[in-house]
């Protein structure tokens, strides 16, 4: 093994059930000295569920994910990469949230995320919280990347499209983050891939915005019938474009992830979704992997969980997302070395 870029406690001396539960036992941001900055990825929590339309409780998601992440280990067997050797990472704690207003909360979380150090270098992984928080982290990511005029591409894993304009008279909720992101110029819907969508829906009109704006939709049924072909084609077109990855845990069947607020039957298994995430490491230009510049894992509801299985899976999904960047950076380093 090489020299680690992220220092973890030795589990033989400091057991995983002891100490402060930061994500995957990463150091706190405040513990990272100046000589070890800039940091590649900061992980932070957005413990707010003011945007939910059904079961509340995702505000407790960040804490539960951190607790279960104590057993996430740094070596990725399938990718053959040691995450902590390639990336420097730290836990930035939780954003201050506004629990009595979804729009105000988005402003508070995005302000916190924008204020995190080294915006031109450091990428952000947010733990939710409900899916309305995604607008905040996407907004912060877009601004930290210099507000690219064409917006960000989006890799969206979910049972629902989340492009409903108004719900219960409110324009900001967990059903609307992507329509708001398009309106703000943050998201290019023609470079948005939604995977895992399934019914039943309230009305056929729920699909109108996505279809009208060119969103690529792959339902669970379509994926099972067609395989990965359309995903691979999308990734090929995406190339090296800057992409945001959002993962709603209800993308997974409630048999594997019961702890969520809007469960939808007929979803992916845990093994299937891990395989799909690993597929992204072979996308992009020359198969070097997708250029993920920001991400989140949302909608974990611990009170509906059993034995922590949903929170544990969410922690591993966050690990998989970080490994995508590690694989891409390793691949880019190998290309540069071969050109010397």
Protein model, in words:
- The protein is of the alpha/beta class.
- 31% of the residues lie in helices and 17% in strands.
- The protein has helices at residues 61-68, 83-86, 102-115, 133-144, 177-183, 208-212, 220-226, 229-238, 270-279, 309-338, and strands at residues 41-46, 75-76, 81-82, 89-94, 123-128, 152-157, 187-197, 216-219, 242-248, 291-298.
- The strands form two sheets. The protein has an eight-stranded parallel beta sheet, sandwiched between helices. Strands 2-3 form a two-stranded antiparallel sheet.
- The longest helix has 30 residues, at 309-338.
- It is globular, with a radius of gyration of 19 Å.
- Residues 335-339 have low confidence and may be disordered.
Q: Approximately what portion of the residues adopt beta-strand conformation?
A: 15-25%
Give the low-pLDDT segments. Answer: 335-339
Distance between the termini: 24 Å
Number of helices: 10
Helix fraction by DSSP (H/I, runs of at least 4):
25-40%
Along the chain, the helix and strand elements come as EHEEHEHEHEHEHEHHEHEH
Which word captures the global form?
globular
Q: What is the architecture at the second tier of CATH? A: 3-Layer(aba) Sandwich
Major sheet description: 8 strands, parallel
Widest sheet: strand ordering? 4-1-5-10-9-6-7-8
> Overall pLDDT, averaged?
95
The CATH class turns out to be: Alpha Beta
CATH superfamily: Ureohydrolase domain
User: What radius of gyration results from the CA coordinates?
Assistant: 19 Å
Number of strands: 10
**What name does CATH use for the topology?**
Arginase, Chain A
Alpha-beta classification:
alpha/beta
């Amino acid at each position: 093994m090489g020299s680690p870029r992220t220092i973890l406690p030795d589990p033989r001396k400091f057991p995983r059930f002891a100490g402060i539960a930061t994500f995957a036992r990463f150091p706190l941001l405040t513990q990272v000295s100046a000589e070890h900055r800039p940091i590649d990825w900061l992980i932070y929590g957005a413990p707010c569920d003011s945007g939910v339309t059904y079961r509340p409780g995702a505000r407790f998601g960040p804490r539960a994910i951190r607790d279960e992440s104590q057993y996430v280990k740094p070596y990725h067997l399938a990718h053959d990469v040691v995450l902590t050797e390639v990336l420097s990472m730290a836990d930035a704690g939780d954003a201050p949230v506004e629990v009595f207003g979804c729009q105000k909360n988005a402003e508070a979380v995005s302000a916190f995320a924008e204020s995190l150090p080294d915006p031109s270098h450091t990428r952000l992984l947010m733990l939710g919280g409900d899916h309305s928080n995604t607008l905040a982290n996407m907004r912060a990511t877009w601004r930290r990347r210099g507000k690219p005029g064409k917006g960000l591409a989006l890799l969206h894993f979910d049972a629902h499209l989340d492009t409903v304009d108004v719900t219960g008279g409110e324009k900001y909720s967990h059903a609307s983050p992507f329509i708001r992101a398009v309106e703000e110029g943050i998201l290019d819907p023609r470079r948005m891939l939604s995977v895992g969508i399934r019914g039943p829906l309230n009305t056929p009109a729920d699909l109108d915005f996505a279809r009208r704006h060119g969103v690529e939709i792959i339902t669970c049924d379509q994926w099972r019938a067609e395989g990965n072909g359309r995903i691979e084609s999308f990734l090929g077109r995406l190339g090296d474009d800057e992409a945001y990855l959002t993962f709603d845990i209800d993308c997974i069947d409630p048999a594997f992830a019961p702890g969520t607020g809007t469960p939808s039957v007929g979803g992916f298994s845990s093994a299937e979704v891990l395989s799909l995430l690993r597929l992204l490491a072979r996308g992009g230009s020359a198969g070097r992997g997708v250029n993920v510049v920001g991400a989140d894992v949302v909608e974990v509801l611990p009170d509906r969980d059993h034995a922590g299985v949903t929170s544990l899976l969410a922690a591993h999904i966050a690990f998989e997302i970080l490994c995508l960047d590690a694989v891409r950076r390793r691949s880019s380093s190998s290309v540069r070395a071969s050109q010397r």
